[in-house]
């Protein structure tokens, strides 16, 4: 209750203090712009702007950084929807349906859905952070290596569902991703492998240049090809911005599911938003009545991951605030900012600096509100940018792709990876092999490998560790169910037919 | 007063993109362009925080902006290579840690310690031995006794082989004649999570990583692997006090590529040493858990060579010398 009271007073303070308000507005604007630029992840946006907070008072610093954090998560989806390039790793699946929507002249709607879902997801994440932080933190601590390994297995089985009608090609694509995930330094023994002696490959194949190449450049090559025949252009029509109410209302389940997954994955230390969105997209595809049309521009495929990556913000703050363990790299930067001000997140913070805990909550809330407001106001402007003459736009996008893949680690080798994967992406498109599973494989593979092997080290080589631990066992059974479900479907053709008949 | 500082820092952020491409300037007006500080680990980690802290406080001692960039990959070796191969004009400076010593012996493509010139020392980040309270061990003596009775019965969370906390664990084994089960994690944060969740029951992390859990009573720091007690845990003895000659942990130093003109190196050295001696900088660093021990170029070089010589036999024994065998 005391926290709630503090929350309201501080909230009023911000809106009555022009300096604080200015800080949050500047933070939000910078967050949206940095998030929107491919190659600048939310983590980097925070790290770049961190020194600004050194000279601010702690409560000002946290409000500024929260604004950057929350806004950059939404910013990442703008470029995903409009140019098919994720601005941040958390937006890698938003484009799968967001971009097809934009292509068919519904860019306004797609961004509206992304913004709406981001806002609601963010608020749900914040509520979770305030109300159930201690419970979630306790549960997240049950997640050790065996649980991580089995959760990834579950994620991989969902891959099979991600490409209806082309299951084998989807699995093939996923396997290419898994193999790419093995290149570089072995995470457990620190020995370089699959590097062919070159220092470029020793860096491993980073997710960001891969997605920029696969989705961004490959898309441009594809477009050039299309227009030479039909004269069709990139994203020309804005379309209406606010979709009909009936459409919006239909999506609440997807938003709730996405938010739930976002909070849960975000709260697990070291899981991160890229995993949260991958899981929630795959899950939504299975559960949504329009699952079959995913990838063709279904709003469900936009709102679920968007709710998820924003809810993950609140989720990731849970272990940081309650246990002093950052949930992902973004919260690690935030923690660094707090440490500079002598505030050490963790159980003691609630006792010694309860007013500051409220500042964190208020900062996040203000950031969500401002992101929603500014996002809505700027939406048309962003789309208008896309209506620039095509020859300028294409060159600008390619430039962004190159800079983005370089900037993520300041490494020229990553630009090479990006170019290589743009060719791979185009070839796969021509061969009609789905590309999204490749990105999923690349995310999930290293996590599975590291945790599976570590579980076995901890258990002295006994595979029983995956059956003896309840959460791991549950994940394993879920994976089995996911694999066997279609088999049962085939065994009961009548039932299946009846289902289709409806 | 405050608002301009926001915008100056913005310019600092924007300098990030351009800093790396600046052309060298004439020697007499050095530095006249932004300096790039290369951190060889990703944004958000301890090395990154240290680098950004130095960049922020060095501003007082130099008129040009200092842009921090993260060049990570290959276990820290990519960032060092980035600096070692940079134009030796003094506009590219790097910060690195103890990982340079082990990576030169596992990775043919990594730079050796003598491939670069050291400018200044940031400080040590001593490792410590932490155990979960439910392990029922309250001193190093009991810890050793328990392991002697049942070798490998304690699971220790540490880096992958060659990493700082892994070497600390290996040294602990060598100096006390025990055998741990060493469980590898990627970085400190996952190791802390493993200790807190109980996947491992001990760790060889730097003191500040688990200080809160120590104060709360969930974790007990048994000993610090340093010559002096740590300011954050003054109640914890050093291993030396306990009669075990064990000093291990990370450290951080600033460096430039070989071939930077002497007068520029001297200027950069002075700028960095002035920064690390600045009481305001030291206060800020202390709040983040960093120990600061300012040293100049000569002392830093000597320090790096000495730790290399000390670590070589341990790395060799652990099978971590694959290239550059001595």
Automatic annotation (TrEMBL), chain A:
Task: Give start-end ranges for the coiled-coil region(s).
Answer: none
- Sorted alphabetically, which PANTHER family does this protein's record hold? TRICARBOXYLIC TRANSPORT PROTEIN (PTHR35342:SF5)
Query: Residues in domain DUF112?
Result: 21-438
Q: Which organism is it from?
A: Nitratireductor indicus C115
Which positions, given as ranges, span the membrane? 20-50, 62-83, 110-133, 145-162, 168-188, 200-221, 261-282, 325-344, 356-379, 391-408, 428-448, 469-488
Q: What is this protein called?
A: DUF112 domain-containing protein
Q: Which UniProt keywords apply?
A: Membrane, Transmembrane, Transmembrane helix
- Known Pfam families for this protein? TctA (PF01970)
